[in-house]
């Protein structure tokens, strides 16, 4: 079975929501104090404070994402603002997919995606009142998430920006929060995805938020926030900081981003830039990508997703 649209596949929806809920309730055997020690031992400049508590398997994915954002590379960081953005998140999604399969004992589970550009065709108010934001799916689009399976997910780690820098706070468990349509009023639409698909090259110097090319347009820095970035900002709340994987909509967003990338590669070839030795270190074709929850991969390992999954549709 392929990765499917969450709004058209009840099985994919139910398994996804149950899987992330169970991962959030499963103890990882790791505490907040363990993570603080790990940061110190690895020389990572991320301040961490708050209560010591047991963390879930789901929390470890949140931590992984924050760490990747914290470590600077020649341009951007180990997951964003450079060519590595798409392959790193592909690896990350594969690892989450594997964990959901394990906990559900369903080897044929695949993550669903949210075609946010289809919702972007709707009116401003209608965008935050679609079926996705009901108790049968993700719960409320604004305020505290208090209905459906997603209301059972507890946020324990939140990134907070202070005058002295970014801090990862371990706090008492609380419900997810959203603020859809407040910081930006509308989602990306099909015109936006078409602009990305019309880019003929993957990326180019300076390999940054100022680059021309498909990656930077899809990531959303060009005239931003657009596309991927715009979805984060539109949802708001817990989707805003580096701890955005707290909200399951993070994975639906990135599966759609990955789907658009796959559609682009089918049309343009499985081409990636930069390649060694050109380009920014850490973002090159055969550079190892940061993984703290299984073996690392290189961009070259994930250019073809077919060993892991396909999509039900590449019409974007």
Strand order of the largest sheet: 2-6-5
Number of helices, where a helix is a run of at least 4 consecutive DSSP H or I residues: 11
Mean pLDDT, rounded to whole units? 97
Q: Please outline the major beta sheet.
A: 3 strands, mixed
Gross CATH architecture: Orthogonal Bundle
Q: Any idea what the shape is?
A: globular
CATH class bucket: Mainly Alpha
| Beta-strand fraction estimate | 5-15%
Helix content: 25-40%
Q: Remind me, CATH topology?
A: di-copper center containing domain from catechol oxidase
How many β-strand runs?
7
What structural class results from the helix and strand content? alpha+beta
Helix-strand topology string:
HEHEEHHHHEEEEHHHHH
**CATH homology-level superfamily:** Di-copper center containing domain from catechol oxidase
CA(first)-CA(last) distance? 19 Å
How many individual domains? 1
The stretches of 5 or more residues where confidence is low (pLDDT under 50) are none
CA-based gyration radius: 18 Å
Structural write-up:
The protein has 316 residues and is α+β, with helices and mostly antiparallel strands. It has one domain (10-302): di-copper center containing domain from catechol oxidase (Orthogonal Bundle), CATH 1.10.1280. The chain has eleven helices and seven strands. The chain has helices at 10-25, 32-41, 57-70, 85-104, 116-119, 124-127, 190-197, 214-219, 227-235, 249-268, 299-302; strands spanning 27-31, 47-50, 54-56, 142-144, 154-162, 165-175, 177-179. The strands form three sheets. A three-stranded mixed sheet has the order 2-6-5, covered by helices on one side. Strands 1-3 form a two-stranded antiparallel ribbon. A two-stranded antiparallel sheet has the order 4-7. The radius of gyration is 18 Å and the shape is globular. The two termini are 19 Å apart. The mean pLDDT is 97.
